Amino acid sequence: MYRAIAKNKRNTVFIIILFVIIIGFLGFALSFLMGGDPLTVTIGTVIGAGIFTAIQYFAASRQALSMSGAIEIQKSDNPRLYRIVENLSITTGTPMPKVYIVNDPAPNAFATGRDPEHAAVAATTGILELLDDAELEGVMAHEMGHVQNYDIRVSMIVFGLVVAVGFISDIALRFTLFGGRGNNNNSNPIMIVVGLAALVISPLVAAAVQASISRQREYLADATGALTTRHPDALASALQKLSDYSRPMKKQNSTMAHMWISDPTKPGIVDRLFSTHPPLAERVKRLGEIGGGF
């Protein structure tokens, strides 16, 4: 487990480097589409994206909670959920996170924050109604696993960088298609085509990186939750119910889809290629194998 935490911290550095390369590539493409010195535009884009990501790192948690419509509760508001999280906090030795409820019939839950001292966990009203106590404990142990493993920090970094890449690409494409190219008529047409391709492809690469990271995190959090409760069958049962009663969330946002325990969207064929979640059936199967090991 400690190796997994150390790996997550190393991954944070690798992810930042990878996204700096993607954003630098975007800046280089922008210089051919809009004109200007390539080195200056590239460095300016990377610095601007870095400032944006730093702001996101500290603000994204509140942003995610706000986008989901989560409302913070105290023990008196929902003693069942609060006590389960409180007991898990004591068991794992992690600080008590803030507890939130999302008023949504879709069964789901997520954790957010930049470290265990600034963490929050949220559950929907749908999941509170659907699961029994043991299953709900398994789900919240999974979310606390994200906190223990520092997955929430990785999520915040990825969240901020994916938004930055999408924002830069979107603005650049609009500027290029609606007048920006007129300022750079002397550019090589081939480089303009390459630049446009970069603006289209970069968000897809960013989404693929986000999906790859998220899938592995979900498996690890499942194993952590099972180890915490010593009851993997309860989490497996909960995941099976999430699969059987899955429905899209009322408030959907693709940039925070990777934070939920179950995909909050109803993806099409193309979207499934970039799914941030492994199949629930595979996760249930793995938990069954873990249960056999106890």
From TrEMBL:
Binding site residues for Zn(2+): 142, 146, 218
CDD domains, alphabetized: M48B_Htpx_like
InterPro entries: HtpX_protease (IPR050083), Pept_M48_protease_HtpX (IPR022919), Peptidase_M48 (IPR001915)
Active site: 143
Enzyme class: hydrolase
Principal location listed in the UniProt entry: membrane
Superkingdom of source: Bacteria
Record EC number: 3.4.24.-
Biological process according to GO: proteolysis
GO molecular function terms listed in the Swiss-Prot or TrEMBL record: metalloendopeptidase activity; zinc ion binding
Subcellular location(s) per record: Cell membrane
Membrane topology note: Multi-pass membrane protein
Keywords, alphabetical: Cell membrane, Hydrolase, Membrane, Metal-binding, Metalloprotease, Protease, Stress response, Transmembrane, Transmembrane helix, Zinc
GO cellular component: plasma membrane
Residue spans crossing the bilayer: 12-33, 39-59, 154-177, 189-209
Cofactor section: Zn(2+)
Cofactor note as given: Binds 1 zinc ion per subunit.
Residue ranges occupied by any Peptidase M48 domain in the UniProt entry: 77-289
UniProt similarity note: Belongs to the peptidase M48B family.
UniProt-listed PANTHER family: PROTEASE HTPX
Protein's UniProt name: Protease HtpX homolog
Gene this protein is translated from: htpX
